[in-house]
Design a protein that fits this description.
The protein has about 650 residues and is an alpha+beta fold. The chain contains 19 helices and 21 strands. It has helices at about 1-5, 35-55, 90-95, 190-195, 240-275, 280-300, 300-305, 310-335, 340, 345-365, 370-395, 400-420, 430-435, 435-470, 480-495, 505-515, 515-530, 560-575, 605-620; strands at about 65, 75, 80-85, 100, 105-110, 115-120, 135-140, 145-150, 160-165, 180-185, 220-225, 230, 235-240, 495-505, 540-545, 550-555, 575-580, 580-585, 585-595, 625-630, 640. A hairpin with a 5-residue loop joins β8 (about 145-150) and β9. α16 (about 505-515) runs antiparallel to α17. It is rod-shaped, with a radius of gyration of 43 Å.
Length: about 650
Amino acid sequence: MMDFFSRPGVWLLVPVAPRIQAPEVTCGVLQSLLPVRVLLIAIMVGTMMTLVLIWPQQAVANALLLEDRPNGQYADGYLSVLRDPTGQLSFAEVRERAFNPLPQQASFGFTDDAIWLRLEVRVAQPPSDSAVSHWWLEVALPSLDDVRFFAPTAAGDYSEIRTGEHRLFAERPLAHRLFLFPFQIAGQITDSLTDQIPGHIPGQLTDQLTDQPIGAETQTLYLRVQTLDSLAVPIRLWSTDALKVRLANEQLWLGISYGLILGMLIYNAFLWGALRDALYGYYLAASVTALLVILELNGHAYQYLWPENLWLANNQHALVPAVHFIALTLWTRRFLDTPRHAPRFDLALRAILVGALVMLALVALDAYQLANQLAFWLGISMTLLILLVSIRILWRGYRPARLFLLAQSIPLLGALVTLARALGLVPDSLWAEHAFQMGISAEFMLFSLALAQRIDLLRREKQEAQQRSETDLLTGLLNRAGLFQGVNRLLDRGTPSALLLVDLDHFKPVNDQLGHEAGDLVLKKVAERLRTLVRAEGDLVARIGGDEFVLVLRGLHECQDAGVVASKLLASLIEPIATPWGDARIGASIGITLAAESDPDLTLDRLLRQADHAMYQAKRAGRNCWYCGQASATTAESLITNNVTTG
């Protein structure tokens, strides 16, 4: 008590209240009240007593009561910490040092210190020798370089297990992506403990741990951790049964996540092989490196890809992100076309590329810690940059950026869920623990959809551009290029067709007398009347010159049949065309040629020459009539009709 009140500044907490005169109370009830100062002193004394009671509890962390929970038990709030800046303290020296309580999570950022953690665990009642209490301590961060676990033995000393990424994967007590250490509260520590968990290496534990019973109700465990990466030690404790269930469920979740990404990879690899589109290649590179990032973060890369390569194990957390940054940046620039849509943002993306190359150079120069720190800042910068550039390009109306932006947002949402789980804001579950990874999986599914949408958009843009290149801007009919494509398709199929070349008569006076605007309007009206004569899909209508039009009618192989259509056209064109500048009166001379035979040498140019010759025959015959001649090896009988005349 006196020790507490002797602390500097404690008395500053006690307010000095002025003496307050108690008011008089009438009606003969009470003549005076207790002074307010007495009340304040009573409150302060109660507060001081409360502080005195809780003060000793803050000096030493409580022992964690072990319980068989399905989601394990986190050690946050039960740990004590000792920092060793030299990294030279022995375990015996550490046990003699004073540890400080660690009320928050065991996260220390980038540090060269060796971090010692102490954890006291206990059970509700000391188990008997026949009821052995098997427990596991999990360190849920696979990127730690040097991890040492110390557990008590029956002889009163401690056994030590060493693992981490500076050691071969085969040296781990349990062949698992994370660090799992067994310990017991009572009974014997034998291989029977780890035989219950898949992945156990027989003989690993019995070489290091005692086989004598331990009957203490409370035990003190120690961890020593040192790493060049950001140092955090998320500790969770499990019973053997709960751990088995957890590992099985986790395997299912991770399998689904990896399966989704692999499915997208295989699907888009087939598309890339079929389409030979470079964009799919960039997507595949980004997807493969993203999968490597997930494998590296989860510890599966070291477990399955390079378990015997210590150099890769020690440098993977800089190498893999650097390669992914390069692939993701190239994919983003290509997909969003940032050089064209957002040139300033594109410069920033190029800076990310340079930063990733610098990371690779630092690893090559054995400056891993600097490369790893650069990866942290580049990752944050790149995520924000891609979000901003996606919003910018979407704002400008580029629709594929919508899915791209959504895809980028989902991993961020997953990261927030994982963070909320760590802070206790959402219930602990496998989906919450692996929300970020599931977000990455969903991201690349959406990337795949965005890629398909972009490919479809490019295809439609190409079709529209081709259509514009094949369309007459004034009338909306096909131009010569469009007519060429359409006729070639008909000729390739050997479809009998009739080609009608329509040359307007008396059109020049319309331009001279009523003006070019009136002339343009007349051409549009002529185009509308020509469209009414198209009988079925596949017939073609085109404008190939100033006042020259072409109709290609499928299925007609006789001059008389084509002449019926030509007569209707002449009757339609002879009707006056109303314009704001006056009525326009025109006519037409029509030349007809037939493509009734399968002729490999038959071309549009040949058909047009034949039709042009027939059209001039119609003009010589007096205009406002049609003339038919076949475009075949032999010239058929020509037929001239002049039954439509001007009024």
